[in-house]
Amino acid sequence: GNYFGNSGTSYPTSQVKNCYCKTSYVKARAEAGGFAGATGWGYFVNCKAFVNGNITTYNHNESDYPEYRYTVVGGFVGSISNGCVMVFCSTEFDSVINDGYYGVGGFGGIAWESNISNCYAKGNLVRGADVVGGFIASGVVNISNCYTTTKVEIF
């Protein structure tokens, strides 16, 4: 991720507020996002990611890197989990592409047991081979008042 690689913490009351990050691209091996590769717990309020290019994962040779077979990519965060709360967060990008397997979404690749509200993802393209979504690709998550403007493509 541009701001965090993994912001996982054992403190559910941790807060990240009013943060802004801008970059030309993000490329990671397993979890990629414009703001963070992965988040767990905590509150993210009014955080923004602007990526002038692509957010991608490496195209892996599965026999060389079996641990990275399941990759997740999101415009804002690759993996959102453990009761994470995101409010008034946004991401803008050219494209989000997952060359590996599993989740790719305009805002998040996967989201588990989390709450996302008043957030948006603006981009030209979200593209992947498996589990692809315009906002969130997969998960068990509460989403309210959110939107995306991306085209979705499955290859």
- Total strand count, please? 22
The SS-based structural class is mainly beta
Roughly how much helix do the residues carry, as a percent range? under 10%
Strand proportion: over 45%
Overall pLDDT, averaged? 86
| Backbone shape | globular
Any idea what the radius of gyration is?
14 Å
| Largest sheet descriptor | 8 strands, parallel
The total count of helices amounts to: 0
Distance between the termini: 24 Å
Low-confidence stretches: none
Q: Helix-strand pattern, N to C? A: EEEEEEEEEEEEEEEEEEEEEE
Short description:
By secondary structure, the protein is mainly β. It has strands spanning 4-6, 15-17, 20-23, 26-28, 31-33, 36-40, 43-45, 48-51, 54-57, 72-74, 77-81, 85-87, 90-92, 95-98, 104-105, 108-117, 120-122, 125-128, 132-133, 136-144, 147-148, 151-154.
Report on this structure.
- This protein has 155 residues and is an all-beta fold.
- It is 0% helix and 55% strand.
- The protein has no helices and 22 strands.
- It has strands spanning 4-6, 15-17, 20-23, 26-28, 31-33, 36-40, 43-45, 48-51, 54-57, 72-74, 77-81, 85-87, 90-92, 95-98, 104-105, 108-117, 120-122, 125-128, 132-133, 136-144, 147-148, 151-154.
- Strands 1, 2, 6, 7, 11, 12, 16 and 20 form an eight-stranded parallel beta sheet that branches.
- The chain is globular and about 40 Å long.
- It starts with a strand and ends with a strand.
Task: Produce the secondary structure layout.
Blueprint: E1 4-6, E2 15-17, E3 20-23, E4 26-28, E5 31-33, E6 36-40, E7 43-45, E8 48-51, E9 54-57, E10 72-74, E11 77-81, E12 85-87, E13 90-92, E14 95-98, E15 104-105, E16 108-117, E17 120-122, E18 125-128, E19 132-133, E20 136-144, E21 147-148, E22 151-154
Parallel strand pairs: 1-6, 2-7, 3-8, 4-9, 5-10, 6-11, 7-12, 8-13, 9-14, 10-15, 11-16, 12-16, 13-17, 14-18, 15-19, 16-20, 17-21, 18-22
